[in-house]
Amino acid sequence: MINSLSGRLLILTTIFVMIAEIMIFVPSIARFREDYMLNRLERAQIASLALLADDMLDDALEAELLRNAEVFNVVLRRDEVRQLVLASPMPQVISGTVDLRENDALTLIGDAIRRMARSENEVIRVIGAPVRDAGLLIEVTMETEPMRRAMIDYGLRILVLSAVISVVTAVLLFVAMRFLLVVPIKRLVRHMQRYAAAPEDARRKIVPSAGITEVREAEEALKSLQTELTGALRQKERLAQLGGAVSKISHDLRNILTSAQLFTDRIEMSEDPVVARMAPKLVGSITRAVHLCESTLAFGKAEEPTPTLTVFPLADIVEEVMEGERLAVGTSEVALINEVPAGLKLRADPEQMHRVLGNLLRNARQALVAAGEGGTITVTARESERNWQITMRDTGPGIPGKAQEVLFAPFQGSLRKGGSGLGLAISAELIKGHGGTIRLVSTGAAGTEFEITLPKGDGML
């Protein structure tokens, strides 16, 4: 109960209301003290007027008038003459004077607190202005103990009333906040727990219904999060299924390609110059396909193998990739230009770089072919003290705006019908494994440009 939001709210509300009541209590006590003394002055004035009306009052009646006024003597100043109107013996000397005509609020509050704290019975002089201008001033002497008891009694009543008000206010606020805030929060928590039990079930997503703006915003944010999470889980499930399917296909395909390698050994022995020239490339392609199968198309397993870093001429890999694409280009008007400096050597995994450049070049070629206007694809590279930069630029139609937002997302970045949308996602992951980055530099009607940046690192040979 205490650790709950509603319990702490109840306690804090009670405390705050009590603090507010205390802030009201002190001025109230000061005001009560002032009214008490003014009341005694009024009683004394009435008694003095009775005596002034009849000078023949006996001592017993004077004493009774003083007892009713609860004072020891009364001094009335009229016409600049100070006159002792009523008098009786005082039990002790006067210890202080209170002038109600001049005291401000802070002085009255300070005097009230001091009077409450002092338990000694004293006799004080009280000076005030007569009511209805019946003279210049009126002065009485009185005991402090009866006034202090009256102040304590009044204070206790105020404290009890304050406590009752605090409890009632706290309970009302507790009920209101529980209905307006705690119940909706608990409902939100129940929805989260229910969804967590089966996040793939779209029926368990929350339906925002709160009337309070802040709680409804929280519900809408939760619904958005649940929608994104459900989609991510479904995609993850598809990737897991893809990984299992790819593993099975890769196993059988590897066996088929291994058999094909045996036939290429015989083809290399052919005396036909065209076959002899093409055979090594065929062997290299089949070998690369076997390696790819052995890694089970690593993206399907949601991870890529650690790159094996070696130093190699980048221009050779680029030319090999372009030769493979030239065969696919056929008679189309797509020109592939290799402008990589012949002496530029790269420290990376050659097989993975072949895959990255192949994916980029294939995407660019397919975009140019789909546009039906032909064009040029150019690969350049340069190096600095810290990194290598490889640029691939084409003169194609550019990438649509929506596709740019999910360009490197698996299954979403495909620009052609039937595409899997994995090429750029695989490339980005392979480059990331090298500690580098791949980014879209520019795209538009003038063409598209990608840039790959690879750090040299401390191991550069």
From TrEMBL:
Residues forming coiled coils: 215-242
Top-level EC class: transferase
Catalytic activities: ATP + protein L-histidine = ADP + protein N-phospho-L-histidine
SUPFAM superfamilies referenced in this protein's UniProt entry, alphabetically: ATPase domain of HSP90 chaperone/DNA topoisomerase II/histidine kinase, Homodimeric domain of signal transducing histidine kinase
UniProt keyword annotation of Glycoprotein present: no
Keywords annotated in UniProt: ATP-binding, Coiled coil, Kinase, Membrane, Nucleotide-binding, Phosphoprotein, Transferase, Transmembrane, Transmembrane helix, Two-component regulatory system
UniProt cross-references to Pfam families, sorted A to Z: HATPase_c (PF02518), HisKA (PF00512)
Spans traversing the lipid bilayer: 6-30, 158-181
E.C. code: 2.7.13.3
Gene3D superfamilies linked to this entry: 1.10.287.130, Histidine kinase-like ATPase, C-terminal domain
Domain Histidine kinase: 248-458
MF-aspect GO terms: ATP binding; phosphorelay sensor kinase activity
Record protein name field: histidine kinase
